[in-house]
Amino acid sequence: MVDSANIQPKLGNDWQATLLSGLIAALGFGLLAYLCVEVPRSLGQSSPIWLSNGFLAAILLTAPNRRWPIIFVGGLLGSWVAGWHAGYGPWSYLLIGGASVLQGLLAAYAVRRVVGDEIDLGRPRDMLSFILLAGFGAPLCTGPITAGLYIWLVGPAPWADFAGWTLSDMLGMLSIAPCLLVLLRAPTYLRERPLTRDGVLSILICCVVTIFVFTQSTYPLLFLAPPVMLLVAWRQEVLGAAISATLVAAISVSMTMAGLGPIHTIDVGPGPQSLMLQVFLVVATFVTLPVAALERHRRAIVATLLETRAAAQRSEASFRLLAESALDIIAHSDLQGQMTYVSPAALAITGYAPEELLGRRYPDILHPDDLETIERVLRAQRSCANADQAPPTTTVEYRVFRKDGAIIWLESRPTLACDPVTGEASGVTDIIRDITARKALEMDLRAAREEAEKAAAVKGEFLANMSHELRTPLTAVIGFANLLADEPALSARGQRYVDRIATGGRTLLATINDILDFSRLERGRIALNPRPVKITDLVSEVLEMLGPDAAAKDLLLRSAGDEIAPPELYLDPERVRQVLLNLIGNAVKFTDAGEVRLDTEYDVEAGRLRVTVTDTGPGVTAEDQALIFARFAQIDAALTREHGGTGLGLAISRGLVELMGGEIGVESTMGQGARFWFEVPAETGPPHDAAPAPEEGGEIVLPPPGSRVLVVDDNPGNRELVRSVLEAVGVQVVEAADGEAGVAAAAAAAYDAILMDLRMPKLDGAAAAQRIREGDGPSAKAAIIAFSADVRTAPLDPVFDGATPKPLTVASLLATLVHALSGPRVAPI
Questions:
Q1: Which of 332, 352, 458, 755 lies at a C-alpha separation of 20 to 30 Å from 807?
Q2: Which of the given ranges, 248-257, 315-324, 777-786, has the highest pLDDT on average?
Q3: Which is higher by pLDDT, 700 or 289?
Q4: Contact assessment for residue 367 and residue 400, using Cβ atoms and an 8 Å cutoff
Q5: Cα(83)–Cα(785) distance, rounded to whole angstroms?
Q6: d(Cα 580, Cα 612) in Å, to the nearest integer?
Q7: Whether the bond into 807 is cis, omega within 30 of 0
Q8: pLDDT at 639 over 60
Q9: What proportion of the chain, given as a percentage, has pLDDT over 90?
Q10: How far apart are CA 277 and CA 250, in angstroms?
Q11: Would you say the pTM of this structure is higher than 0.85?
Q12: What is the Cβ-side half-sphere exposure of residue 652, based on CA atoms within 13 angstroms?
């Protein structure tokens, strides 16, 4: 929205200024025209100078273009009044004055087109443009026209020839117009170059010399005036030149018209005398004003150079202060590698003073092992001709010798330096930092990491040993408990005790498995074994296993969605079962009332199985949700103590899901239960690298009766357990207490199979099996079966023909033996 209240005063002020400009143009043009006509006429001479055109051109050049029509009309009005007062006919002088006014307009228009809206005669370009366009161009274009109109309308006159009229216009344009333009900018010129005593004295000298020249008519001393005018131009520049030109013009014209001066030494009549005076004034003005403009320009250049030099000195001082205060070394070397500048920080870092390093090359203090590295980088920089060819700046770390002989580490970024004028490469600039402390810290951290890795390896070895030491007795405990439970003469109380023993053994085994699984995940020692799985059967199996726990708390345990999944999906059933047992087991453990629901979804396009476990328990806070899957973190140790368990189940679940290429998460609101979910890839067809699935049947395969088996184990309970199982199906069992005893027994007698423990004193299982294979004893070609908890996590040594894990199960042991012994017979389950 335009604010008209603010515009109106501005428009009013502009119109007032425009009318005032027109009035000044009318009065000035008319007055000067009258004087230029009447004064020479009264003396019986022709007018040697026409000032009105130059006055009008100056008024136009100092006014905006929008005021030009009014100023032009004012000039016409002043011209008409002056002609009427001089006794000429109104129409005749209106045409002659119009042509004269047109000259001023043409001069102003031509100059403004070249120099722009603002003219400054102190600029050589503006001065030259004004002299050529206004001083010579416009009078040459309109002077003959004005003279022709005068001859046609008024009549011939001795001074009305074309050359004289044109020269008088030129003189007026070159005298009064520059003076007015300069005087209107006098405050600016005085700020730049104030009047000095020498300047005022030079103006006075100019006046005295001019008066002297034009008050005598004996000698042609016109040549004395221009040098003095140049002196004024040199001392006071443009303003002084304009003043001196005006004063010289006034003195010379007035004295000449009074019959004085050297012009009258030319005894050829008033016409040539007037022409000579005009030429003198034009030449004097033409020489003085350009020289003044050039002097002003020279002074400006000198001032700029001085300021630039001072700025450069200040900049150099600032950069030198920064370089000298910097804690890092700032160095510059030429293209030959010699150092030309080194900052004072070199003394504190290297022990060398900067002057000791100047003229030297980098290799003088470099460690020999790092010489090639730094030289390669520097060669790449120095081989470039300019900055555009320079390679990317790289950071280099290297060692140098301090002056005291100590070795320190430095870091630098060599950068190609180029000449700011030519752009050509001039050397290499480098900022060098002492990183000795950082390198020491890095070495300490590296040593600490190696120590931590060794500690982790020791921990892994310790857990592996603990696995063997704990599972070995558990194998006997659980195995004999199962055998004892099958005794028909066992009393009810004994049966209850045996069940408690088996339950405690399984609980302890689950805890050990959690700890070992977590350790194996940390070391990446768990391998996947995908095969076709029926999701319905897997879900039913998990729910059946956890059903008694849920029933004991009156919880509803149900599933949904598994019946619409594809009939078979390829995945690792053991790992998925382990995750489901952890999630559902946790949900049952922490839910006191309500239900636990298992939902199964399958995305056919993405080929992913999504399982969700939702409970009605207390829920998980937002803060704890960020920690619930974290390793080595438990959200509430008190809950762990209250409900039992190691608290590692969710961390293990996360590791297994990520190992399978999936994701796991939780969504919960306090007081509204929790929703745990995981997604894993599950193809509907066998993957390219999937191993064929083992055949499943409803029968147990028994080894041939009378088969001879050597059991090598350092634990007597495990040997007795294996003996009890195998002798029950007609297998002959011989025992060996360690690896060396096993090698001796295999060399002494023939056995159909050897059951070999992996971790034993004196000689471990793999070494014992290798010695049996390399020997020529009767059992060298017998099937050797690895018998250890380690077979679950580590790849099987090629020396073995098979493996059965601990804790021992009857089905696993018998199935493994069947693959090793010939002539199997089948018995119903």
A1: 458
A2: 777-786
A3: 289
A4: yes
A5: 138
A6: 9
A7: yes
A8: no
A9: 6
A10: 12
A11: no
A12: 27
Mean pLDDT throughout 705-713?
A: 88
Of 545, 547, 564, 563, whose CA–CA distance to 555 is shortest?
A: 547
CA 474 – CA 615 distance, rounded (Å): 34
Distance from C-alpha of 234 to C-alpha of 228, rounded to nearest angstrom: 10
pLDDT above 50 for 187: yes
CATH architecture under which domain 326-434 falls: 2-Layer Sandwich (3.30)
- Residues ≥6 apart with Cβ < 8 Å to 258: 43
User: What 3-state class would DSSP assign to 170?
Assistant: helix
CB atoms within 10 A of CB 558: 12
Q: What is the CATH number of domain 700-827?
A: 3.40.50.2300
Terminal-residue alpha carbon distance, the chain = 99
Q: Contact at 8 Å (CB) between 655 and 664?
A: no
Q: What are phi and psi of 491, to 5 degrees?
A: -75, 170
DSSP structure string for 5-24: HHHHHHHHHHHHHHHHHHHH
CATH architecture type of domain 14-184: Orthogonal Bundle (1.10)
Map out the domains of the chain as residue ranges: 14-184, 192-325, 326-434, 446-508, 530-681, 700-827
Confidence band (pLDDT; 50, 70, 90) for 638? very low
196 secondary structure, DSSP code: -
Q: Rounded distance, CA 469 to CA 758, Å?
A: 12
The candidate with the shortest Cα–Cα distance to 57, out of 156, 172, 141, is 172
Q: Identify the CATH homologous superfamily for domain 530-681.
A: Histidine kinase-like ATPase, C-terminal domain (3.30.565.10)
Q: How many CB atoms lie within 10 A of CB 823?
A: 10
Q: What is the 3-state secondary structure (H, E, C) of 367-393?
A: CHHHHHHHHHHHHHHHCCCEHHHCCCC
**Of the ranges 571-585, 607-621, 642-656, 672-686, which one carries the lowest mean pLDDT score?**
642-656
Q: For residues 568 and 684, is the Cβ–Cβ distance under 8 A?
A: yes
pLDDT band of 613, cuts 50, 70, 90:
very high
Helix (H) or strand (E) holding 491: none
Residue 762 zone, left/alpha/beta (φ > 0; ψ -120 to 50; rest): left
Residue matched to tokens 């090598």: 712
